[in-house]
Amino acid sequence: MPRAHRRRVVGAERVGPYTLLRLDRGPLDPGAPGQFFMLEAPGRPLPRPFSLCLAPPGELAFLIEPVGPGTEALCALEPGDEIRVVGPLGRGYRLDVARPLLVGGGIGIAPLPWLSQALGRPPAVLGFRTAAHAEAAALLPGAEVVVDPVLVTDGIPSGLDLLACGPEPMLRALAARWPEAQLAWEAPMACGYGACYGCAVRIDGELKRLCVEGPVLSGHRLVCHVPGPGRETCPKEAAA
Predict the structure, then answer these.
(1) Out of 8-17, 110-119, 125-134, 223-232, which region has the weakest mean confidence (pLDDT)?
(2) What is the β-pairing status of strands 223-225 and 200-203?
């Protein structure tokens, strides 16, 4: 079982509708881009998984969108507050790529600034649903930015090594056209290290834990969520 560390909040800054939560790093290793950390959500029974966004000296920074009680509690933290942190966890992006292009959709921009730094600032294209959300593009200077109804998948040239994170429809569209793309997927997680099976998904037809197998997978690997209320096993086009 990975060890939990109590870390102090050193900053919480608004970036459009998002919050960039900065923690004192202490003994924690930032890990590889695309790995994630489990952050304690104050007042909530379970932690939440977040990709590392930035790793300045002595800090770990996470980009958080307040979409529910847990993320709202994290966004409300102030300097001096402390939370429990576990990580880094999971499998990140492979960095042995010749012509990288980073692709992000919405809050999927979160792991890309750290990834961009590791790859020497390659080109990037980011898509957002509103101009307010697109303010987060400031975390990735020089990126091409599109806003709904323009799709981030429009106009991507061939011959590049795609590394992406974003909503599932975007990832599936990328996987269909670029099967070798590296895609960061999401699933509900309660522990982050394989003990709870809360993130069980079907990968290549087999039930696996995304927190262990992923979250970054090659585009040719078919990811299907386990059936549950209001959920399908696979998209119709994937099951056909």
Answers:
(1) 223-232
(2) antiparallel
Note the pTM of the prediction, 2 decimals. Answer: 0.90
Q: One-letter amino acid identity for 52?
A: L
- What SS3 string covers 57-83? CCEEEEEECCCCHHHHHHHCCCCCCEE
Token digits of residue 68: 């529910």
Question: What pLDDT sits at residue 204?
Answer: 83
Q: Which domains does the chain have, with CATH numbers?
A: 5-89 (2.40.30.10), 93-184 (3.40.50.80), 189-240 (2.10.240)
Per residue in 118-144, pLDDT (tens digit) is: 999 999 999 999 999 999 999 999 999
Calpha distance 157→59 (Å, rounded): 36
C-alpha–C-alpha distance, residues 226 and 234, integer Å: 8
Distance CA 40, CA 44 (A): 8
